[in-house]
Design goal:
Blueprint: H1 2-10, H2 21-33, E1 42-43, H3 45-52, H4 56-68, E2 72-75, E3 79-82, H5 87-107, H6 115-129, H7 133-149, H8 154-171, H9 177-181, H10 183-196, H11 200-230
Antiparallel strand pairs: 1-3, 2-3
Helix pairs in contact: 1-3, 2-4, 2-8, 5-8, 5-11, 6-7, 6-10, 7-8, 10-11
Amino acid sequence: MAEQLSGLADDRALLGRTSTAERVSDILRSRIAEGFFPPGTRLSEDSIGGALGVSRNTLREAFRLLTHERLLVHELNRGVFVRVLTVEDVEDIYRTRALVECAVVRGLGAPHDLDGLAEAVESGRRAARERDWKAVGTANIHFHRELVALAGSERTDELMRSVFAELRLAFHVVDDPRALHEPYIARNAELLDALRAGDRDQAERLLAGYLGDSLERVVDVYRRRVVGEDG
């Protein structure tokens, strides 16, 4: 916990003079997504509030916001914890992804700026060359956030920001991140090529198969690592 709090203290400058619960929640959301606070971690009000230099009330409001986003859970008489997803949670996340992401691809009209997708593909390749598989996973999520952004909808972006943050909770329990993330570097590039060619039908087929395979892989890990431990 000392290492996490040290890193969190570095984020204190981001709050500036107009500290708000929303800004605190943004910082904590990012830290949770990056794995600084893994699933099941108890978040100490005193330690985190002290590291960020915010009041207890502000921190509690930030916790409330992240609980609403399903990233945290409050347990009576125990405190606030980073949520541990269930298999059903993972399945629902992917169901939401398929509904939203495939609809975005299906609804694309005029040519779009695909530079963000291309940058995410290259980031994944670069991370793979460096054998940084966690960074490959980050690049993969960045690719899908850029894909959703093609819809040009702030509401959709906000919805999927929360969904992708939840997805990172699932990734944090994976014992072999290379096996999980590496195959999607090439698949992201293939999807990008279809979009560049303007072939929306092919892009949607690729995406649907992609998400189905990813769901199967993540659920398999969950059944072995989380359900197996509980059983």
